[in-house]
Amino acid sequence: MRIRLSTTQIILLSFLAAILVGTVLLCLPISATSGEATPFVDALFTATTSTCVTGLVVVPTATHWSMFGQIVILLLIQIGGLGIITVTAALSLLVHRKFGLADSMLLQDAFNLNSLSGLNRFVKKVVIGTLLAEGIGALLYMLVFIPEYGVKGIWISVFNAISAFCNAGIDVIGQDSLRAYADNPLINLVTCSLIVLGGLGYIVWWDILRVCKGCKSKKGLWRHLTLHSKIVLCTTAALILGGAILFLLFEYNNPATMQPLGLYDKIQAAFFQSVTTRTAGFFTVAQEGLSAPSVLLSLLLMFIGGSPVGTAGGIKTVTFAVLLAAAWSATHNRRQIGMFGRTVSNTIVHKAVGVTCMSFAIVFISTVTLACVTDAPISDVMYESVSAAATVGLSRALTPTLNTIGRLIITATMYLGRVGPISLAVAFALKKDSENNIKNPTEDVRVG
């Protein structure tokens, strides 16, 4: 009997296959600098955090893994950032193989698109745009890393550029991530730019380029953007700017984070923290030193994450914005949900609620189970779980101390967070019964 898988199930299994292949490769003695085989759970954790572009690590990437191991990790990051379906499609285009209907449907689900038209061109633009952004980022990184590390600086620059654009947050510099460069404007600017570009989402890129090419007047640029792009750009800007201001206020006199820095460097560090919590994973200040208000703010920003059809995780900016708009309409007794002069359909609102509830459920279960197997403070446990579920990669120094069960819990959380709560629900849902087509009587209930 032939088993037929849905497109969503194929996407889920493709990520799982990449993780398993990566695990096997990282278990090999050649992958470790010591020449000894890495324990299976550690290799599985590393392969998962790389493929799911999370960034949590149980062993130091720079010192534990050999060049071969680091190459495997970087390939997993690139595959995870683009999606294995996209990589496969790009290879098919490279050998001039046309997409069939099944391939097109896979790509449509992988990018969460509404149409099957123009997928070939879309994939080409995604790959070219990704390589171009990562290449420019690597060249700019080299201005700092080559003078400091010599020839090794080339590898560090390439690794960091891909990791930053894919919102992975894994680096080959050391255990302190980018803390040594908290006062370096170039490193801060390049890293933040790559994180934001990857997190905006590809369809926003093309929409901005389309409008820039088509509009003769700069005044008409904003008006011609799609509603999706407007929501993404406004929400992203508000979260980054608002987060930076609050982080600066909360950490200004905190001796464990920003107090030793000058005013300009404090502003840099605040902006970097606000950007990196959008599922990037790099850090320039010690996360374990953050004050309680900053921890809560970080949890919120991590949970929201980046934007759809990009490399970031979280419930996504559009989901967050739609929920706020729905709440606003409800409190003002409005039947329609309006944003930027457009009406948002109830279907979109239902999806936003579903994504948020499923993500919250994953975080809650992960937090509770992880709290059962570790003696760490609940704030650190929650930080770890949200970071894993939203594929952020920030940790309050808890990850390396986790026992085997704890590492498996976070591994599962990263996978579920990456493949998407709704995709997971759809993939394993039973076929609709004929009873689902029956419309039941409507009756009011009381909420609030």
Task: Provide key terms for this protein.
globular, 448 residues, 19 helices, mainly alpha
What does this protein structure show overall?
This protein is mostly helical. The protein has one domain (7-427). It has helices at residues 7-27, 40-51, 61-64, 67-82, 84-94, 101-111, 119-149, 152-165, 185-200, 202-214, 221-224, 227-251, 263-276, 292-304, 317-331, 346-372, 378-389, 404-419, 421-427; strands at residues 337-339, 342-344. Strands 1-2 form a two-stranded antiparallel ribbon. A hairpin with a 2-residue loop joins strand 1 and strand 2. The longest helix is centred in the N-terminal third of the chain and has 31 residues, at 119-149. It is globular, with a radius of gyration of 22 Å.
Strand order of the largest sheet: 1-2
Number of structurally distinct domains: 1
What is the tally of helical segments?
A: 19
End-to-end separation in angstroms reads 50 Å
Give the quaternary arrangement of the chains. Answer: single chain
User: What is the string of helix and strand elements?
Assistant: HHHHHHHHHHHHHHHEEHHHH
**Biggest sheet descriptor:** 2 strands, antiparallel
Rg, Cα atoms, Å: 22 Å
Strand content: under 5%
| Overall number of strands | 2
Helix content: 55-70%
Mean pLDDT: 86
- Bulk shape: globular
Ranges where pLDDT stays below 50 over 5 or more residues in a row are 429-435
Strand-pairing-aware structural class:
mainly alpha
Write the SSE topology:
Elements: H1 7-27, H2 40-51, H3 61-64, H4 67-82, H5 84-94, H6 101-111, H7 119-149, H8 152-165, H9 185-200, H10 202-214, H11 221-224, H12 227-251, H13 263-276, H14 292-304, H15 317-331, E1 337-339, E2 342-344, H16 346-372, H17 378-389, H18 404-419, H19 421-427
Antiparallel strand pairs: 1-2
Helix pairs in contact: 1-2, 1-4, 1-6, 1-19, 2-4, 2-18, 4-8, 5-7, 7-8, 7-9, 8-9, 9-13, 10-12, 12-13, 12-14, 14-17, 15-16, 16-17, 16-18, 17-18
